Each structure stands twice: as structure tokens, then as C-alpha cells.
Amino acid sequence: MLGNRRLTASAVAVAAISVLATSCTGQSGNAASDDPNAKTTITFWHGWSAPAEVKAIQDNIDRFEKSHPNITVNVVANINDDKLNQALRAGGSKGPDVVSSFTTSSVGKFCSSGAFADLKPFIEKSKLDLEKTFPKVLLEYTQFEGKRCALPLLSDAYGLYYNKDAFKKAGITAPPKTMSELAEDAKKLTKTKGDSYEQVGFMPTYHGYETVVDHYMSSWDHAYFDKDGKSNVAKDPAFAKMFTFQKKLVDDLGGYEKLERFRSTFGDEWGAKHPFQTGQVAMQLDGEWRLGMAEDAKVPFEIGVAPMPVADDEADSYGKGFLSGTIMGIAPQSTKQNAAWELVKYMTTDTEAVVQFANGIRNVPSTFDALKSPDLKFDPRFKTFLEIAQNPKSNTPPAAVNGSAYQLTLQDFGYQYEKGAVKDLQAGLEKTARQIDRDIEQAK
């Protein structure tokens, strides 16, 4: 799916990778001995499936094979993490040599278990200066505890989409910059219809597509873990502030049950009937891909794009946002790791390759040079996402040894709190923190 980085229950499947540390029998990066100049064929697995995405990948592969005539790449599309994990556990010569995943939150598991090969030897041999190549956040989410097992392959930046026509009718002259402004505008833009709505200013529930806990948290300065690696969600006041804000917005816009009934009328997130595109929602937290999808759907209103509003007492950080992206690495069982590295290096660091791929699938480039390239083709509004991607205060959840499990635990708490099943916020956060700590300890 274009840009779909949201956490789902299926993300827990990455926990199965823990067996890889002992089951993988392939060579490590240090032991790679294949000749990258020899004539060979490598296999690349990726998760994209839409025709335009598959074509963009193949275009890049064609350019790679032209510049590396000795290496032929067998491309396999539509590989999700479940399929990838099964192949990596099985090992053998029929699996992939180069792998990619949309699940950045799984990097901690990928790196600590050996599911992806250590890239340090390849990076050192290539004399690749990572800090001069990639933005800081992207470097952080492709390594875990000092071990780098992946590199970024394009990125996603999240911002606020708004219906300019609806804003004009409501007398709103500019997008909100703080969370209190977001709440005020959401109320002005909400139009009730009987016991439902004609339009909701902003769909705040955690099932509202991209309005999930970790995306909300990017608007606050926060830390998921303390210096000792323990869950910080009950100690860092930013979490309580976010949950309080979201719950109040849910209540102010009509309450959980009423909003959820309206949400049940929404079209598919990835189809033409997305609620922002139909006018059912006037403001939407979403990734850079939504702009192209909304334009393709020929929406009958003018689309505005801005950074997501920030916490009221952090107004000076406006312009930041949530970042995510695709990661790319080498399968540990591959016997062609040097050749595999040539493809990884090309697709993640070659400016033409990154720019053309970004143009092809409407994602944000992942290198500094590509972000500044004159060959980058985009709607002028897309510049907002390029700026969010380069903002030093933009953020993403840190990697953990058990992948995205801690985020899912916090998300599950959010579901209970927003509907009123949890009455004591602080007690609920403390219980959630204890569960996160237990899960991480068990995964070690």
C-alpha cells in the first residue's frame, strides 16, 4: 500500500523472528566472499503491489542492471512481513538476497535477532558517510543499539490536510498551528445531521485511519523510554497530556459512540471514497501520499497542506512531524551478499535512483542530495513534506528488542481510554508501562 505505515495486530508477527538468531546458517557480512563483479543473479523481495509502484521499482532495477551488467535482479513483489519472516526462518537458497519492509518499528527485532545481516562491513568497505547521506531520524530507525542492519529506502512524512473550501465557509483563514487551535477549528468545522454528522472537522478517534497514538505523540516532545530502557509513558507528562487532549476532543465533537457510528460510513483508506476526499472530514492527519491520491480522486475542493499542529507550550517546534519509511537490507542466509550490497547501496544512496523512485510512487526522498535534487517532480504543496522530513525535531518511535509490541500495547490502552472504559488515566498509564517492561524483558 502507498505509504501505509500504521501499526496493526499483524505487526506482532515480527516476534517470530527471534528464532532467527540461532536458525540462520548463512554467512555474516564479515564473511561475505562472493565476487560482486562476477556474473550472478540475486533475488529482491519488496512489499509494493500497486501497478505504479511495481513499475517504479522495475524502472530502478533496469537502471541498476544497466550500470551493473554482471548482476541480474529477480524481483518479487507484494511480500509482506509474514512472508518475509517465514522465508528468513526457513533459510536456504530459494529465499531472497535483498529484503525490504515497511515496518520501521521492527528494526529492533530485525537487528538484535540477526534477521537482517549486519551492514557495517559493507558500509565501511564502501566508505559510505551515513551522516552526510541521510537525515538523523532515518538513521536512527534503521539501527538498534549500535547495530546497523538496514538503510532507508524513501520515507514518509505526516502532516495536516485541510479542506480550504470548508475553512472559508467556517471563516477560518489559516491552518491551526497548536493543538488548542486544532480543537477549536475542528468544532467550527463540524456539522451535525440528526443524530450523526454531515461533516466532522477532524476525526479524533484512534480508529480514524492515521490518528493513532504514535502519530499524535509526534506533536509533543516525549520519550517512550527512560535512560535505563524502562517504559516512560507513565512518567513523561507528555503522554498524559496527549491522551487528555484526544479524549476531550472526542467528547467535544459528540462523543465516542456518535463519532464511531459516523466513522463506520467511511470508505476505504486507500480508495477514492476516503472521508477527506468525500468531504466527510474537513481536516486529516495523513502522510505525503494522500495529496496525490486526493488529486487522482478529483476532489471538488481546494486541498491545503500544513505541518501537524504541536502542543500549545511547544509552539516554537511547529513544522515538525511524524516520520517513517521503508527499510532495506540483506538476508543473512544469502550466499551473494556482496552482490546484494551493490543493489542495496544503489537503491538507497544513488541520487538518481532515489529521486526517480520518489517521483514514481510519490514518497519523500530519503537522502539529503535527493531532497534537494532539481529532478524531483512534485506538486508545490509537497514541499511541506520535504521540509517536515528535514526538520530536526521530527520524530519516530524508537526501536525495541520486541519490535512494535510496546506501541501496540499503548495503542490498545488508547482504545480503552477514549471510549471511557478506563477512568483513571495515570493508573492506566502505570499499568501499561508495567506491561511494556514485562514484554521487553521476556523478549530479551
Write the layout of secondary structure elements.
Layout: H1 20-23, E1 40-45, H2 51-67, E2 71-76, H3 81-90, E3 98-101, H4 107-113, H5 120-126, H6 130-133, H7 136-140, E4 143-144, E5 147-148, E6 151-163, H8 164-170, H9 179-189, E7 191-193, E8 196-202, H10 213-217, H11 237-252, H12 256-263, H13 275-278, E9 281-287, H14 289-296, E10 303-306, E11 323-330, H15 337-349, H16 351-361, H17 368-371, H18 383-390, H19 405-418, H20 425-443
Helix pairs in contact: 2-16, 19-20
> What is the count of DSSP helices, taking H or I runs of 4+ residues?
20
Low-confidence stretches: 1-30
Shape: globular
Mean pLDDT across every amino acid position: 90
Work out the strand percent.
5-15%
Task: Give the termini separation.
Answer: 32 Å
Please describe the biggest sheet, giving its number of strands, its sense, and whether it closes into a barrel. Answer: 9 strands, mixed
**From the helix content, strand content and strand pairing, which structural class follows?**
alpha/beta
The level of helicity is 40-55%
Rg result: 22 Å
The strand count comes to: 11
Structure commentary:
Strand 1, helix 2 and strand 2 form a beta-alpha-beta unit. The chain contains 20 helices and eleven strands. The relative contact order is 0.19. The longest helix is centred in the last third of the chain and has 19 residues. The protein is of the alpha/beta class and 444 residues long. Helix 2 packs antiparallel against helix 16 and helix 19 packs antiparallel against helix 20. The two termini are 32 Å apart.
